[in-house]
Amino acid sequence: MTGMGTTGLTKPDAFYESLLKAHEGLSKADSDAFNARLILLMANQIGDEAVLEGLLASAATSGVSAVKD
Amino acid sequence: MTKLFEVPLYPYQRSKDQDAASPVRHPVVIIGAGPVGLALAIDLAQSGVPVVVLDENDKVSVGSRAICFSKRSLEIFDRLGCGDEMVQKGVVWNLGKVFFGDRKVYEFNLLPEDGHKRPAFINLQQYYCELYLVERIRMLQAEGKPIEIRGRNRVSEIEPAAGHTRLIVETPEDAYRLEAEWLVACDGAASPARRMMDLEFAGRVFEDNFLIADVVMKADFPTERWFWFDPPFNKDQSALLHKQPDGVWRIDLQLGWDIDKEEEKKPDHVIPRLKQMLGDDVDFDLEWISIYTFQCRRMGTFRHDRVIFAGDSAHQVSPFGARGANSGFQDADNLGWKLKMVLEGKAPERLLDSYAYEREMAADENILQSSRSTDFITPKSEMSRIFRDAVLDLAEDHAFARPLVNSGRLSVPCIYDGSPLNGADTDLLPMRTRPGSPAPDAPLGADWLLDRLKGGFVVLGINCSVPEDISLNGLKVVGVAIHGPDIGPELRDRYLGEQSKAVYLIRPDQHVAARWLEFDRTAVEAALAKALGAKEEEHA
C-alpha cells in the first residue's frame, strides 16, 4: 500500500483539536467506545468497500506495531 | 393432557426381514426418522423408489427444538405434499425487536417480497413438523407407495461392501441383518453412523450452551421476535423470545461454555430468570426445559461411496439464522432425485458427487453466516465487544447501523454457482434465476409457479412454446408453457428481465439447470445430460 497522499483537510489543526476535545474528560472505556462509534460513522460516510479495505491496510502498515510489506 | 411427543407414533412391529433366511437388500435405507430423514423418505417414495427408515426411537422429538421453517422449506413441503398442514398450524411473524441492555434499540419488519405462495418464515415446533411428515408417510402407504418406518430399530453396525452396505439392526426382540444399496445417515449431530464409520467432523469450533424453555403464557403476548443483547436477566449473553402455536413461547438463553448444566436446568433457577425477562405480572407454565450445546463444523465430504450423510449428521451450525433443519431439508431435496436417477440407471453414480459438491458449498455458506452472527452476538475480544456495542448504540438513532446488527441472518437457500450440473446461461436474463439458483416462486393467475414445477425435470417456456414431453435415455421431461395474461409482473421481473421470452430447464429439486432465450431441443438435451452428471464429451 502506498501512502495516502497529502491531507484533504483544509483546517488540519482545527480538526485535530476537535478530535482531542471530544475525548476530554472521558474514561479510557468511554473513549474506546467513542472511537468505535466514530469509525463506524466515518465508514458509513465513506461508503465504498474498496476504499475502506485500503484504509484498513494503511492503518495496519503504519506505526510501531505494524508489519511493513 | 398427554403431550404429542409422549405417544409412540411408529411403534415397533416385527418386520418380515427379521425372519428372512438371508439378509434382505433394500435400494435405500435411511437411518433416522427426524425431519430430514422423513422428508427424504417421502420424496423417494412418492416418486416410486422403495425406502426403509430405521429409527432407534418411536416418537416425534421431545420439546420444540427447530422452530423456524423458512420459505424454501415450506416450498419443499409443498412438493412433498404436506405444505398446507405446516402453514395452517404455524405462526407467521414479521416484526422483530432488538434490545441492548435494558432498552429497545430498534424494531424491524421482515417485509417479505410479494408474489410468493409461502411466507418468509413460520414458527412451528419440530414435533408438529415431524408429525405432519409421518402423517404424509401414512397417506403414501395407504396409496400403496413403497415406504416403511421401523421404530425402535437401532443400527449397531455398518459395514461397507461391494455395491452395498451391510447393517446390523437391534430391535426390542432380536438383532437382524439388512443390506442397503444406498445408505443415508440422517441421524443427527451426534451421528452414531458417523462414529461407527470413524469419519471426521472438523471445522471451526464454537463452544456454547443454550437453555431452551417452552413456556405456556396465560395472557396474550405479541407475535414478534424479540432479541436481547446483554440483557439484565442474562448478563453478557443473548436471549431470544419467539411465539409458537398453541400459546407456547420459545425462550432461548445463551449460557456460555463454562456452566453447570444440571444446576442451570433446575426450575428454581430458570423461573426467576424468566420472570425478570417477561415481567413479574406475566403468568406462565414451564412446558419443557433443555440445554443444548452447539459447534460449527462439517464432515470433509458428505458422500462416502454408498453411504451418504444429510442434515446435522453432515454439518452443524449455530442456531442463529435457523440454518439447521432448513439446510437439512435442502439436503434431502438435493439428494432425493439424484438417488432415484442413479437407482433407475438414468444417471451415473457420480451424479451423487454433485450432492456432496452442492451441499458442502451450502454448508460452508451456512457456517460462514452463522459464525459471523456468533462473533457479533458473543464478542471474542475486548475490541470486538467495543465495536459490537458501538453498532448497537448507533442503531438506536442511525438507520445505517441497523444492517450491521447481526442477531442471525435468516436462512435463504444456497445458489449452486459453479456446480458441475449447471448448463447454458445467458446474462441477458435476470441474475437471480441464473443456473444453480432455486427457482423463485411467482403468481400465475390464481395459481403459483412452483406448484407447476413438479414431477421431475421441467422445461419451462415463458412466452415460448415447448414440447409437452422431451425424453433423453428414456427420461421424460415435463413441458410447461406460460403465455400472455398469466405472465404477471413478478414472473417477468424474476424470469425475463428485459427479454420478451425465455426457456428454463428446472431440476426436480426446483433449482435452475440451464436457460436460453428460445427453445432448442439439442441444447436442452445437452443441458439435461449435464444436469444428470454426464461428462462434457458424453454429450458434446
TrEMBL record, chain A:
Pfam family, one: DUF2783
InterPro entries in the record: DUF2783
Stated name of the protein: DUF2783 domain-containing protein
Native organism: Roseibium denhamense
Lineage: Bacteria, Pseudomonadati, Pseudomonadota, Alphaproteobacteria, Hyphomicrobiales
UniProtKB/TrEMBL annotation, chain B:
Tagged with keyword Flavoprotein: yes
Domain FAD-binding: 27-365
Superkingdom, natural source: Bacteria
Any matching Pfam family: FAD_binding_3
Required cofactor names: FAD
Alphabetized SUPFAM superfamilies for the sequence: FAD/NAD(P)-binding domain
Keyword terms: FAD, Flavoprotein
Name listed for the protein in its UniProt record: 3-(3-hydroxy-phenyl)propionate hydroxylase
Species per Swiss-Prot/TrEMBL record: Roseibium denhamense
